[in-house]
Write a structure and sequence with these properties.
about 130 residues, mainly alpha, 5 helices, elongated
Length: about 130
């Protein structure tokens, strides 16, 4: 049997140990993210309001000013896309954390015999999203 295992491992490599989720660290990271998100969102709102004004100006702009307006919008969108991408990545990472926390809680509930709770949460749309 040991030879089969070593053959399998040599072909596919040793199995990786899955790192256990640390709900407390995940919760703390999410709290920190949520505390810090407000300035980022406020900055994005200001940038979008600036973009909105440029778009309104573009609708009435003459052909001579149109190039300048569109270049200004492109420059502003570069900044918006970069900041929005960072925000989206952070939200996605924290979404994964929330999913891990919810799965871990359901496993713990199952272990302590709360089968009805687990069944109920698995039917809940909000819990199934994760």
């Amino acid at each position: 049997m040991a030879s089969k295992k070593s053959w399998w491992q040599s072909l596919f490599g040793p199995q990786e140990q899955h790192k256990k989720a640390d709900a407390l660290k995940d919760i703390q990271a999410i709290i920190e993210f949520l505390k810090e998100i407000h300035p980022d969102v406020r900055e994005l709102i200001a940038k979008f309001q600036e973009l909105e004004e440029l778009e309104k100006e573009r609708e009435v702009a003459t052909s001579g000013v149109l190039h300048v307006n569109i270049e200004a919008q492109a420059k502003l969108l570069d900044d918006i896309l970069k900041k929005y991408s960072f925000l989206q990545n952070d939200v996605d990472i924290n979404g994964v954390r929330v999913a891990q926390i919810s799965r871990q809680l359901l496993r713990r509930a199952e272990q302590v015999g709360l089968h009805d709770l687990v069944k109920q949460k698995k039917k809940d749309v909000n819990w199934r999203v994760f």
